[in-house]
Each structure stands twice: as C-alpha cells, then as structure tokens.
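We treat protein structure as text, and this decision shapes the records that our systems exchange. We quote a single record here, exactly as it is kept in our systems:
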Amino acid sequence: VTIDDDFFDLGGHSLLAARLTHRANRTLDTRLTIRDVFQAPTVADLTTRIDGQEGGARPTRSAPVAAERPERAPLSEAQRRLWLQASMDGHGTAYNVPLAVRLDGAVDPAALRAAFRDLVRRHEVLRTVVVQEDGDTEPWQRILDADAPDVLAFEVLPSSRERIEDDLRSAAAHVFEPTRRPPLRVTLFEQVPGERYVLSVVLHHIATDGQSVRPLFEDLAEAYRARLAGEAPGWRPLPVQYADYAHWQRRTLVESGALEGDLAYWKQALAGLPEEPGLRPDRPRPAQAGHLGGAVPVSFGPDVMNGVRRLARAERCTPFMVLHAALVATLTRMGAGTDVPIGSPVAGRSSDELRGLVGFFVNTLVLRADASGDPSFRDLLARVRRSDLDAFAHQEAPFDRVLEAVNPVRSLSRHPLFQVCLVLEDGEDLTVELPGTARTYARVVDTPTAKYDWEFLLRDDPVEGLSGAVLYSAEIYDPATAERMVRAFRAVLESALADPDLALSAVDVLAPGERVRVVEHWNDTGAPAEHRSVP
C-alpha cells in the first residue's frame, strides 16, 4: 500500500505530516520523524522501521499535560529567545503581530469587551507577564488575575475610511513592555457607528504565532455570541495551558538531556557556517540593527505555483523544498556564495493537546544548503531535500540551544546563524464571522519593520497562486535592490521549472535592461584620443 501522492503536495514544513507521525508514534509507542516517512514512503517500509529492521525503534516522548507547576513557571524556549533578544535590542515593534478585521454590521462594544475578557481568561498566556527580579538567574511567567482591571487593554476610537490604514499602523506601533503589561492590545475603530467597524488586535510574538490566530478568533466569536445573549461562553476546557507546555518542555526536553543527540547533530551540521552571506549591501551595517524594513510584493501567479507542485511531485519532495532550492540558487547567483544558510520556522504543534491553544510554539530551523560545483537545479534540489529532511528530523532542539551549541561569532548588527528567512504558507484566509456582522477575513497590518536582512514570506494562494512579499532591511538595502532580488528569484524559479537539468551558471538573473546596462553602457569606455605627449 503506497501513501497517496497528495501527501507530498503539502506546503511549508508539512504540519499535517508532523501530526500524522505524532499520532502514529503515540499509538505504536515508537518515534517516527518526517524524514522517516519521506525515506520510506510505503506502509511496508515504515513497518520495517517500527519493527527495528532498519535502525531500530526509538522511544516516543510524552505529550504535554496539565501537571502541577512550579511556583515560578519557566518561559518556554521560544519565549526565552525573544526575551534575550529584547534585552539586547530594547523593546521595539519588530516582534509585534498586528491583525485587523473589518466588521460590516452592528457591533456591541460592551459585549465585545466582555468577550475579550473571556478570551484572556481562557488562554492564560494572554494575561502573562515576564518577571526577573533581583537575584533571579532566569526570567519566569507570572499569570495575572483575569478579573484585574488592567489585564485587558481595550478601547473604542473613532476613525474614517480615509484614515483607517493610518490608525491601524498607529495601533500596530504600540511598544509592549512584557514585564509590566500583558501582550494583548485591542482597539475597535468606529467608521460608521452601527454599520462599519475595524477591529485591531495587536499581540506580542512572545504570546502568539501563526497557528494561534485561528483558535483565537474562533474562541472570540463563541464568546461574543454568548455575551450578546447575556451568558458566559460554554467552552470545552483546554487540556493544557501554555505554562504547562513551557514546564513540560523544560522538564522533558531540556533538563532531561533528551536533546543531546539533536544538539550534537546541529553542532556538526552548522560547523564553519559563514558569519553572513556574501551579498554586497548598499550601505554598511549599523553597529546595532534597528529593524527598519521595507517590502516588495510577490505575485508570480498560479502557473508558477502549479509548476512548483509538479516538480515537487516528480522529485518526491514538498513545494517548500523546491522554493528553498530556488532561493539558494538565486542567492548564489547574486553573490552570496555556495554555502547558503536559510532560516525557516516550524510550527512546533504536532501534539493534539496544543492544537486549540494560543501561544508561541514556533521553532526556527537553520537549513544549510551546498550549491558548490555548479550543479543542475535537479541536483541542487536533491541536496536541499536531503538536508531539509535531516533538519526536520531534529526540529525539537530550540533555536536558542542550537545557538549556544554552535557558538558563532555574535554581533548586534545581524541575526545569528542566518540572515535570510523563507516561509511558505497555505493561501487559506482565516474567516471571521461575529454575530450581527458579515463574514470577513483577518489580515496582518503592514508595518515598516524587518527582523532579518531578507525575509521571503510566500503564500500558496488558491486564486493568486504563488504570492506574498519579500521584506528587507532598509538600513542596508535600497528598494531597487529588493526589487532586483525579487526579479532574480522569479527568473531562477521559472528557469528551473522549464529545465531542471540546467546548470546554475546558465541561469540568467539579469533583466534585459540590466544586461544592456552592464554589458554595453558600463563597458562603453571609448573616448577620443588627444595627439600630444604625456608631459
């Protein structure tokens, strides 16, 4: 029996595949990884791995449970990383998650406020502050009382169709202080009272991630429906809270030594990593990154995305791996060298207990690719597939622990281990439907910030195809350079889809106008000679 080919059409890092392997592990008391599924794509092959005929079974790890917590609950590893980053960079807006929802219809502000109060009561992480008192070696979580008057920042402000985008950007620019206030701020902008509103929900990344948005708005809709009826929401209790997960992670993974094998892998895999890509910036790096950013839209269309899926199916990999290989090829052709590290997030939610929970579960992997020897795109994709699967198999090692194990040269001017990030999301917009309003969608508010030199935020949209945006550090790159990078990425991708056996050196990353300028105009050095001696 062969696993359906559609399995290999999953985007991103195959969150569904992670959940499937997690469920198999719990049922069969073993420990498969995504790499196992790709390397053994039939049930028979997987059976031999579970039975120990190929490498032996590995004991599975327990799932997070609502156990007794210590008096001072630790931060999760992801939270600890952001906390350390903020302690170096200072509090800013680079890690804000600003969401906006247009609401057409009648909205009851009092009921909506009560619904958000229910939301912070249900999800403890939304009313948590970070504490590090004198004498503390590590920060810890303090969960505030849900009924405290200042635990929820909620306000109603007037706005208009002309200035709503400015109002949303102003709300998104709120600077959170995780030591003093919870990581949630809500503003209901009234454009036409009783008819049209825009809801601004701004969270700090220390309390949320991309997979948290759906349970957040689903729980909000249920709470609002109940409050309109004068009732409390009848939710099914959550199996665990975020503090339970953080305690489980520290106890089960970090303090138990269970990550030693993963950390040993990363220490070897990232040995000798380049400090930064060889791309020539337009300006020198500042001594300390200020995270000022810009954005260039990506709109490559459905034909390109369909081609990516076809090539992924033919090479038994995911669309993400095809895009990863294309980005590696682009960076190499643009001067980054042949040893190319790219960061990419993984969801970190394979356990069923975490699916409906708001929190920061994302981990970041460093995907190192070797583009040396002028390979064909097909050969490069095979290298990327192999290295990506190895990385996914060791994804439980938190990035901060990997950073400590590798111990690269540190600098406040750049992100450690990688400066280019790649994300591929599915294109399903999150629908929001509050009672009394039309069905709408939650969207991210654009803000002029950048966490890395380059961040490729791509989407597999069912209508627009391969789309999204490329964020760039405006402190070291000009908009024209960013636009050139996007054009080069598209040129490499289209060339690879047309002929995967073409060598990288044969891929032209220059637009016709750029080629004329470099080859003809810049080389047009002829000048009339004067008939006189040098003296």
